[in-house]
Amino acid sequence: MAGPPSATLVPIDMLYGLLGMAVVIAVLCVIDTLAMSVCERTREIGMLRALGPDRTGIRRMVRLESAVISLFGVILGIGTGVFLAWTGGSLAVSGLPHYTTKVPWPRLALFLALALLISKLAAIRPVSRAARLNMPRAINAQ
C-alpha cells in the first residue's frame, strides 16, 4: 500500500494553475483574432489610411479592438464565475448552515486590470502589421 504523495498541491494552487493556462489560451486567441482581423480588413485599413488616419491612428484602432475583445471575455468569465459560485453556494447552504459565498472583488478588479495589460501585449504583433501596410497595395488587395 502506497503512502500519501510527498508534495501535494493545495486546491487554490491548482485553481491558479488552471487560471494561468486559461490566460495563455486567451492571449493566443486574442492574437489570432486580431491577426485574422487585420488580414481580412487589409483593404479597409488601406482606405482608412488614404482618408486620414496615420499609422498611430491605425495602431490605436487595433489596440482598442484588442481591449474590447479582452474586456468582453473577462467580464463574461467573471460574471459566469460569480453566478456559478452563487448558485453552488445557495445549494450548499441547505447542508452547511454557516456557509457563505464571499466574492473577492479586489482580486477580480486586479484580474480585470491584468486583462487590459495582457490585451496590450497581445496586440503588439497585429498592431505592427496593420501599421506597416502599404497603402496602395492594401487598397488593391482582393
List the helices and strands and how they pair.
Elements: H1 11-40, H2 42-51, H3 55-92, H4 105-122, H5 124-131, H6 135-139
Walkthrough of the structure:
With 142 residues, this protein is mainly α. It has one domain (23-139). The chain is 77% helix and 0% strand. The chain has six helices and no strands. The protein has helices spanning 11-40, 42-51, 55-92, 105-122, 124-131, 135-139. Helix 1 runs parallel beside helix 5 (124-131) and helix 3 packs antiparallel against helix 5. The radius of gyration is 22 Å and the shape is elongated.
The mean pLDDT is: 84
Structural class of the secondary structure composition? mainly alpha
Major beta-sheet overview: none
Q: What proportion of the residues is helical, as a percent range?
A: over 70%
| Strands, total number | 0
Poorly predicted ranges (pLDDT <50, ≥5 residues)? none
Dominant shape: elongated
Distance between the termini: 68 Å
Query: Which oligomeric form is depicted?
Result: single chain
Number of individual domains: 1
Strand content: under 5%
Tell me the radius of gyration. 22 Å
